[in-house]
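Dear support,

I submitted the protein below through the web form. The confirmation email said the job was done, but the results page showed an empty box. After a refresh the structure appeared. I'm attaching both so you can tell me whether what I see now is the final result or a partial one.
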Amino acid sequence: MTDEKKPLPYGISDFKKLIEGNFYYVDKSLFIKELLKEKTEVNLIPRPRRFGKTLNMSMLRYFFEANPRSPDQQEQQNRHLFEHLAISTFPTAMAHQGQYPVIFISLKDVHQKTWGNCYEQIKKILSEEFRRHKYVLESDALDPDQKRDFQEILQKTASEEVCRNALADLLRYLYQYYQKPAIVLIDEYDAVIHAAHLYNSNQEGSATCHFYTDAIDFMRSFLGGGLKDSTILEFAVVTGILRVAKESIFSGLNNLAIETFLSNFYADKFGFTEPEVAALRAYYNLPQTKDEMRDWYDGYQSGEHCVYTPWSIINIARYKILQAYWTKTAQENIIRRLVEPGNTEQRADLSILMSGGTIEKKIDENIAFERVDTHADALWNLLLFSGYLTFSSITAKQAGRYAQLKIPNREIAELYFSSIQDWFYEQANTKNYFEILKKLVAGDTQEFKELFTDFVRKSLSTFDIRKNEPENFYHALVLGMLIGLHETHEIKSNRESGTGRYDVVLIPKDHQLPGIIFECCSKVISSSHRAK
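What the results page shows now:
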């Protein structure tokens, strides 16, 4: 008899399909108990992509949603989904199962390149959710004007004003039908804002053009109208990647609790904990060791917990190969901003991160996209809350909170490596780039000097180098260039050695080969080969 394993939930974000299909499930059902305990009216929970947000939101919907066909009887149609989960052992929490009307809207697919196309996608999503509640339209709960607006949203012919008020209106319609407050679940609320920032920046060089302002303006009206203090709202959960600046989106929401990676609330409900990964690893008999799994996919500090990327763990259980999985869904253009010329300080900080070190930066949980291109702190915060960095500690100072930032694991480090390599490929072209590295490793310092000098002259401007910081600039440049050798050499930066301190050192993994030490100074870059 074969030991047949449960199938992996690869790409499945519908909770009911996952449970009824007997897929492997990492039980996050106590998220429900914690929500009920806290009783916060509007919960904003930002997490990076692929951290289980949509699946958790789907779970909440199936847990709380009443049967629309018998609202008076409160038939608990989805109770069987939770019978064998941790939440089933808490009768007080289970008393809420199947008791509320639920609005569930996911905006994760709203990432088109123009506001017009994004808006059309939003209208389609609103139409689908209103259609899910069409039983209200078919009842006597609505007056003729309300029925007209309902029909227009169904048919995607509603005016923008009606669409802006759609969340508030649907809440009201459900209250009139059920005579009880509803629960609102908004998944990936900031997807359209990410798209607006990304495509405006790429096409027009500014995130303050019409696309961005239109997206912000619409979401402010849509969310604000539905989530402000209201007697017909039981509670709301809103997820996304970032907390977009409060003055931009959530102005007027005094009932809002924001729980980012820095918070202890729900800290172990998004991402896999060490025991959860250990159980999965044992169940599927994965050949990788605990240390290998940690090195590649662990390292995200979430409140008091350290969590793994769920997408990566599901993928390694499927393919059983240690490689980057989450980063294939990432946006490398964010990291490229650290690599490209223009900001010596960011390059120097990047060199520290790439060497396994930490950098201290002021933390601001409010991300203003229009500041990312012009303010270094905004970019570091974007990298932190998007999952490209994590923190090892938080310190409260007079000027605010400061975090020690670092690259969380090898998977993310690989993304930095590839982004830096790609930039050098483009600047020096692939052939010349590898020729530079080949001459360096071979100890042909004269050829290396000529090739490197030619690269600097053709690719960089004197405006890229701050007059008082040329050493830092070349230090970061050299470190970036050497990333192409990370498979064969260990790269270290700014470490004590003997009675001195080197700038960059290359230590070959083959100990029979010579090591290389770089010393950067204002006028020249010198390198010397030393036996390890």
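Response: this is the final, complete result; the empty box was a page-load delay. The chain has 22 helices and 14 strands.
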